[in-house]
Amino acid sequence: MKRYVSELIGTMVLVLFGCGSAAIAGQMLGTVGIALAFGLSIVAMAYVIGDISGCHINPAVSIGMWIDGRLETKDLLAYIVFQCIGAVIGIALLAVIINSAPSLGGYMATGLGQNGFGSASSVGLGAVGAIVVEIILTFVFVFTVLGVTKKAENAAVAGIVIGLTLAFVHIMGIPLTGTSVNPARSLAPALFLGGQALQQVWVFILAPVVGAVIAGLLYKGLTSEDA
Q1: Count of structural domains within the chain
Q2: What is the pLDDT of residues 85-102, one digit of tens each?
Q3: pLDDT score of 226
Q4: Ramachandran region of residue 71, left (φ > 0), alpha (ψ -120 to 50) or beta?
């Protein structure tokens, strides 16, 4: 249970500060600033809960770890449930904060850092393009996580590497889809906003899962002693 609660807290922090930076200060921070908010959230949590739960705080990462044999099936399911709960709590806190600042006009006006394609994409990226982008970005992120956490001697730098990797995939992905690479992070704001965000969220659940599966299978194949 300590591991599950840790995943809940970690995901809550990631979503609150990452999505919060996009919703509240996105115009001031720009793409790089928002990307760093997500990345630094990972860095902070990695050094707090990494020794407890592994600091997945992302169903896609948990799926990759499960494929590589580092997470049992029962733990995979529990991790995903608690990650989603943590994401919902993070978005709920963000909504309360935004609604407490009258000048912001409420969270329906600011958004909640949701993902989107088509008219919801800064560059008008279509659904197929969004699926391809999210598969690629998630693959790169999960592949990196699997590699850097494989050896115990990397523990001191793993959090920094993972955080920087999350930041750099956001730098490319934010103008395209807002960058998901994390189904829990995408589902929570969509549930609160409804409408287009909820209609499109299937892409940001499906594509990261596919990217994670590809990363997990490829990494396992490359590191297998039989390979």
Answers
A1: 1
A2: 999 999 999 999 999 999
A3: 61
A4: beta
Report d(CA 138, CA 144) in Å as an integer.
10
Rg (CA), the chain: 16
Quote the CA–CA distance of 176 and 40 in Å, as a whole number.
21
**Please, which pLDDT band fits residue 155 given cuts at 50, 70 and 90?**
confident
Helix or strand holding residue 1 (H, E): none
Query: Among candidates 134, 135, 158, 129, which has minimal Cα distance to 146?
Result: 158
CATH number of the CATH domain containing 172: 1.20.1080.10
At 10, the amino acid letter reads G
For the chain, report the end-to-end CA distance as a whole number of angstroms. Answer: 36
Residues 132, 129, 94, 86, Cα dihedral to 10° = -20
Structure tokens at 177: 């889809």
pLDDT at 169: 97
Query: Which range of residues forms the domain containing residue 75?
Result: 2-223
